[in-house]
Design a protein that fits this description.
- The protein has about 450 residues and is an all-alpha fold.
- The chain contains 16 helices and no strands.
- The longest helix is centred in the middle third of the chain and has 46 residues.
- It is globular, with a radius of gyration of 22 Å.
Amino acid sequence: MSNPATDAPHLRRVLTAKDLIFYGIVLIQPIAPVGIFGIASRMSDGHAATAILIAMVAMSLTAVSYGRMATLYPSAGSAYTYVGRAFNPHLGFLAGWAMFLDYLIIPLINVVFGALTMQRIVPGVPFLVWAAAIAFIITWLNLRGVRATARANELLLYVMCVVIGAFVVMAARHLLQHGGWAALASIEPFYNAHAFQWSTALSATSFAALTYIGFDGVTTLAEEVKEPRRTVPVATVLVCLITGAFSTVEIYLAQRVCPDPSTFKNVETAFMDVTHMVGGEWLFQAMGATVVVACVGSGLSGQAGAARLLYSMGRDGVLPRSLFGRLDAKRGIPAFNITLLGVLSFLGAWLISYERAAEVLNFGAFLGFLGVNAAAFWEYGIRRREGHTRRWFMDFVVPAAGFVFCLIIWLNLSRVAQIAGGAWLLAGIIYLALLTRGFRASPVSLDFSEDAPVNGKEPTRP
């Protein structure tokens, strides 16, 4: 006789640590440091590599907390759920509200950087024309229901690795030819006594942390992993460490080739200048094309995720249902949400710089990271869980250290980012009070899952 509990459809635990690490690297992308190099170098007075390493420590500690929370709540994978389960649903809603800000900023930041890169490749075309073109392409593809596939992401990852590999080889050769081993091997990108200041290094770290955004996506696969209690935390940490390693190499070499940030032709796309110096026109063009394709792909996924979230919020009455909670009758997609996000991405590209957009994104992300570290500290260190033997270092020190590191980085965001993010958080608190009649009722859960309906059916994970 069959057992209904075992016959019901369920996710199979087939993924290994290697699968999770590959998935995490796809999410973050090997060219992630390209966008932060120039600005982080300027902010830190030539210590961008140090900023990357400091951010890696904070992200690795936070990755431990994410991994351990994923073993407690494997079907969640979101900061808002971890915070809501550990503390209360109202705090969870606010963590989700902070994540919502990230969902809105991700398409914008990809439009901005893609347009900046295209302007370097074809300098005769104004920035706003490229921004409009990229925002239109992303929106048009999403309105047609086109989604990036796992195979396309895998191919793009290999192309990125080839281009970055070529840069590493050519940068090393360039340094050896122009200064020998003394030029190639130096501690100055990490510490230059004449220019290093902790205040500028931490300010740059708050920006450079953008490199690691996306590592937490590994935990969304917790239900499909073999031995999740061991595999998920290890894979999440390794994704941060591997990202930190290749990012440090890229930034270190770029810093050695062009150590003076004041010489950058364009601070946002300074890495492009370095590729031209070491590899000539072909490497410059290859890096530019790779960055633009990556921006379109990331913007496509980001806009689809934001549209899905707006739809679920409209469907559940968190936002006006007549606008946000309806699907296009013919195509089965939240067409209004997609179009609105496309317009906002273009307007945002017109009104806000890449640097400010990145810092506002980090404001929301680090609020979520703070919440996850606090939740891990509470669940493992304070709450008495049946069958769990407390370990002083893992249960207390690691989440507390992750919280402190993330708090330091969050507090060192620019004043503009803090004001904009603070206004967004205040709006969330006011909105939550209205939704819950003065916090007396439980808030509606925000649906960040990949399984929320988008194209009129339940989408499958690629």
